[in-house]
Design a protein that fits this description.
By secondary structure, this protein is of the alpha/beta class. Helix content is about 45%, strand content about 15%.
């Protein structure tokens, strides 16, 4: 696990850390999560990353649509049940969990 707290630090961190999952808040300083999702997806390995958007501010159906168009695989609204997050990442951590 590697935490990043500003939008400008995210892409360099992904380059260094090469994560399997990115849990990305939409309302970040400097750049929105929507913009960052698009940047991640443009990177050579960006298509393989499980990209999960979260927000406590952007909760409308249109926000979820924008998240999908920006490249997010999933979109969670705060507060969310941790079991939901665990279920989303389970296929990456537990053999045969996605079947």
């Amino acid at each position: 696990v590697h935490g990043v707290y500003t939008g400008s630090r995210l892409v360099p961190s992904i380059r260094e850390f090469d994560p399997d999952v990115v849990l990305l808040d939409i309302a970040l300083p400097e750049k929105s999560g929507y913009q960052l999702a698009q940047e991640i997806r443009k990177r050579p390995r960006g298509q393989r990353v499980l990209l999960i958007g979260i927000s406590g501010q952007y909760k409308q159906g249109s926000d979820k649509i924008l998240a999908h168009l920006s490249g997010f695989d999933h979109y969670l609204v705060k507060p969310f049940d941790p079991a939901v997050l665990l279920a989303l990442i389970a296929p990456l951590t537990v053999p045969n969990a996605g079947r």
